[in-house]
Amino acid sequence: MRINDILLGLVMALLGAITIWASRDFPSLPRQQYGAGTFPTLIGGMLIIVGALMMLRGLRYRKALFTWQSDMTPARVLLCTLAIIAAVIGYIVLTPVLGFPIVSLVMLTLMIGWLTSGRWVLAGVVSSAATAMIWIAFSELLHVPLALGVLEKVVY
After folding, report:
1. What is the pLDDT of residue 156?
2. Exposed site from 10, 31, 77, 82, fewest CB < 10 Å?
């Protein structure tokens, strides 16, 4: 099913507004220009901007709000849902042991490859780029350490 960008943009903008509203009372850090609410406020603002752009795109193309792309059996929907739940549980369990880079790369490759019906080269490229970008964003820009697991001995 394809959902029109107007609806997705609206949901995204609402999530951004809720995020900003929920983070307004977060405490500030002593002797810092930013506090605990800075990051959620930035994310909320970006969600609002991207949501507004999506709504404008949806208005520009004026397509139906919902379009069925192809027949999808309830079994396939259930299988996809279970795969995503299993991936989240696997990430939680395996990341402390194997580390974020390995788990993220393998899980993203498997999920993208499976969900795109075997486009493994695409899956490998996208998962490698996503893992690298997430690692850089968290460890270098935000100074939030991600678990290295077995790679800790290699890196340090």
Report:
1. 61
2. 31
What residue numbers bound the domain in which 156 lies? 72-156
Phi, psi (rounded to 5 degrees) for 132: -65, -45
pLDDT at 149: 86
Find out whether 120 and 114 touch, Cβ atoms under 8 Å: no
- Tally of CB atoms within 10 A around 2: 12
> Please, are residues 113 and 120 in contact by the beta-carbon 8 Å criterion?
yes
Listed residues 70, 97, 120: the one ending a domain = 70
Beta pairing class for 2-3 and 66-67: antiparallel
Regions of the chain where pLDDT drops below 50: none
**DSSP letter, residue 134:** H
Contact 35, 26 (CB under 8 A): yes
Measured CA to CA in angstroms, residue 28 lies from 25, 36, 45, 90, 143 at distances of 9, 6, 19, 34, 18
In this structure, the answer to whether residues 77 and 59 fall within a common structural domain is: no
